[in-house]
Amino acid sequence: MSRRIITAQLQAEGTGTKIDTYYDRVVKYIPADIVGAWVAAMGIIESASNIPKNILLWIAFFFGVLLTAAWTLRQTAAPKKPPAITQTIISTGAFIIWVIALGGPFATLDFYRPLYGPLLLILYTLIVAVVVPREG
């Protein structure tokens, strides 16, 4: 399955693929590989001792944001098609929301409450799949 969201029948014709549905977009918008890497990195950082954990978590977070954008652009690249900017923005936002939901460096901020992140994650995931990228 291609990572790029297919929005027009013309793109799907003759390839054996179909237009992506709401469910397909939910799956393609979530950067599961980067979120998995974040969970691993967070676990490694938090289990280490005698290191500036909060600083390392923020560095890893900003690196993850950049990596998500670059990786999504690369994974959705297709010949003779414009870059999947909408999908990249939504996937990068999804990574940020996942990190907030998991706590990470945000857990050290005064306004952070563990309840808000998971609720935001549910809302974001269900709402963004309604977005159909124009550059499909």
Brief synopsis:
By secondary structure, this protein is an all-alpha fold. 61% of the residues lie in helices and 0% in strands. Helix 3 packs antiparallel against helix 4 (53-76) and helix 5 (85-102) packs antiparallel against helix 6 (116-128).
Order of helices and strands: HHHHHH
Main sheet properties: none
Extended strand count: 0
For the termini, the CA-CA separation is 15 Å
Q: How many domain modules?
A: 1
Low-pLDDT regions: none
Characterization of this structure:
With 136 residues, the chain is mostly helical. The protein has one domain. Helices cover 61% and strands 0% of the residues. It contains six helices and no strands. The longest helix is centred in the middle third of the chain and has 24 residues. It is elongated and about 55 Å long. The chain starts with 8 loop residues before the first helix and ends in an 8-residue tail after the last helix. The model has no long low-confidence stretch (mean pLDDT 92).
